[in-house]
Structure formats: C-alpha cells, structure tokens
C-alpha cells in the first residue's frame, strides 16, 4: 500500500532522546560505545535498542527482535529520533514485520545508510515519512564525525531551513556532471545493491519523477554495470528526473583488466537517458558524507553546480 502525502518528523534538539538500534549486522562494542558517547557529548540522551549488543551469525539478533526494536522505538513517546548502529546485512528480512501504521502515526527522525536503504524505501513508500540517508552510530560517530559530516547531519535533522547546496568537502574534487541539465523532484535512493535487490518485490523503489541518489562501495565496475542494467531493464532509471552517483569507494580498485572505470560505466549506462547525471558526490561510504533527507524536493542543476535541497526536511 502506497502512502498518501508526506510526513516531516519533528526536528531534533539537544536534550532529546535518540534511540540507537541495530536492524542489520552487529557492531563492534567499542565503536558502539564510542558512538553513544559522541551523541551524548553533543547534548542528546541515548536509549539503546534491545539487540544492540546481540549477535546471531551475521545478524544483530533474531528478525522478530530487530523488527520489534524498530516498532518500539517509533511507538515510544520518550524517543525523539532513531539512529542505526551500522549496516551490513539484514534489513530486507524485516520489511514484512514492521508496523507501518505505528510509524506513520509516530513520525520521527530516522537515520542510516548502506543496508538501511531497504528501510528507507519501505518506510517512505508505506508511510510518507521523510527519512535521512546519513551517518550511523558505530560506523561513523564511533570514529568521530568530520566537521563536514557533522555540519550536514546537524543541519538536516535540526535546522528550520532547507539544506541548500550539497557540496563536496573543501579539500576534495567537486562533483562532475556526466550529463548536464536541470531537473527537480523528490530525493530518493540509497545503496545500489539494496535497491536492485528489492526489484520485483512489493518493496521496490519508486523512481518516477525523483532525483535518484545511488551509492556503492567495494563493487567492481562490471557489477555496477550489472545492477544499473537491471534498473534500466526495470524502467527505474528512465523514470527518474535526474540521477546522482556518489564517490564509489574501492570500486575502481576492484577492477581487473580488461575493464571499464566506474565513470565509463556511468557514461555508457546513463549517458543516453536525456536527464542530468551527477557523479562523485560525497554521501555514501566515505568518512566525509553529506546527510540527504529522502522525500524532500531537490534540484539537480548544471548552472547551480550540482544538487540543491530546496525543501525543509523537519517540522517544529
């Protein structure tokens, strides 16, 4: 069932309680503890989910317990926002176990990336809740966020103004347009592997008229090619208004000759879609990452130099 309308969560403020959950793989205890301390040092209270220190193979506890954690955090009046511990694998196993009516009636800031993509897609489509593709407690906060990452994260979840232009870190090369142009639409997307894995299920991504943001890590160019071709065959890339691809960490290094580069694959697979395509934006598996509010209006514009988020993601 598709959600009708969009819901903006209340913006977070120091003193609010953030729930930290582990909906996918377990995290290293030291990094988890450091991530909690990092949030507390910035004035937030933290409540830990029940599976935060559990391990069941490559999962952080049984499916039912991890799903119950998500449902309980949304239902609790004491929790103002939710930050995922890490990605890894496991969120697709939870999609049929979530209480979407509960999430819809108790909207909150929800943050994560990588494997968390499946939750972003399913929650967004079934509740209309704007969620946040951003840093996680163990993977990022446990190591300390850079000034760049903290600025985008704090503004996305707390500021009453739109995020505005999404630029790369000062010392990094700016993003480049593989295909120039202008497009406007709601932000959607996440990890390319997860998006491809949901195709053909009731939880597949809706890209129609969207600015589709794709990120990946450690995938050889031919595997990027395969997943983009899968999205093309499903009509998902043709339906998008514009496409943004991240700095693909350890992707070209996985190439074995003869090979194309990731940039060449993007040019080949996306270059003839007659829509703007931006490459090399920092929002994925890099230490520096911008937080992207999924579900708000953004503009992709060559003249403006890249991606501009034009709508506020939170409410009072």
From TrEMBL:
Catalytic EC class: hydrolase
CDD domains: Peptidase_S66
Active site: 114 (nucleophile), 215 (charge relay system), 285 (charge relay system)
Pfam families hit by this protein: Peptidase_S66, Peptidase_S66C
Gene Ontology MF terms in the entry: carboxypeptidase activity; serine-type peptidase activity
Entry EC no(s): 3.4.16.-
Location of the LD-carboxypeptidase C-terminal domain: 184-298
Keywords: Carboxypeptidase, Hydrolase, Protease, Serine protease
Gene3D superfamilies: Class I glutamine amidotransferase-like, LD-carboxypeptidase A C-terminal domain-like
Protein name in the entry: Putative murein peptide carboxypeptidase
Lineage of source species: Bacteria, Bacillati, Bacillota, Negativicutes, Selenomonadales
Record gene name: ykfA
């Amino acid at each position: 069932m598709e959600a009708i309308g969009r819901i903006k969560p209340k913006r977070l403020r120091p003193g609010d309680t953030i729930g930290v959950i582990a909906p996918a793989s377990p995290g290293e205890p030291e990094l988890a503890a450091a991530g909690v301390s990092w949030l507390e040092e910035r004035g937030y209270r933290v409540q830990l989910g029940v599976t935060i220190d559990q391990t069941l193979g490559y999962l952080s506890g049984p499916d039912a317990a991890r799903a119950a954690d998500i449902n309980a955090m949304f239902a609790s009046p004491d929790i103002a926002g939710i930050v995922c511990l890490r990605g890894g694998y496991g969120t697709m196993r939870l999609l049929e176990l979530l209480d979407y009516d509960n999430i819809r009636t108790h909207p909150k800031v929800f943050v994560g990336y990588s494997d968390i993509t499946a939750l972003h897609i399913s929650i967004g489509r079934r509740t209309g809740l704007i969620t946040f593709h951003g840093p996680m407690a163990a993977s990022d906060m446990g190591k300390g966020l850079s000034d760049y990452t903290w600025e985008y994260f704090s503004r996305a979840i707390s500021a009453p103004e739109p995020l505005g232009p999404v630029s790369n870190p000062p010392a990094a090369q700016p993003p480049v347009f593989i295909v120039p142009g202008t497009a406007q639409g709601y932000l959607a997307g996440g990890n390319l592997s997860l998006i491809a894995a949901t195709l053909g299920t009731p939880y597949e991504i809706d890209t129609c008229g969207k600015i589709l943001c794709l990120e990946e890590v450690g995938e050889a160019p031919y595997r990027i090619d395969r997943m983009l071709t899968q999205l093309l065959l499903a009509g998902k890339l043709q339906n998008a208004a514009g496409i943004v691809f991240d700095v693909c960490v350890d992707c070209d290094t996985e190439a074995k000759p003869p090979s194309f580069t990731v940039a060449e694959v993007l040019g080949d697979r996306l270059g003839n879609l007659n829509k703007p395509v931006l490459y090399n934006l920092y929002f994925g598996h890099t230490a520096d990452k911008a937080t992207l509010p999924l579900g708000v209006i953004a503009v992709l514009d060559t003249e403006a130099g890249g991606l501009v988020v034009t709508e506020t993601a939170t409410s009072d």
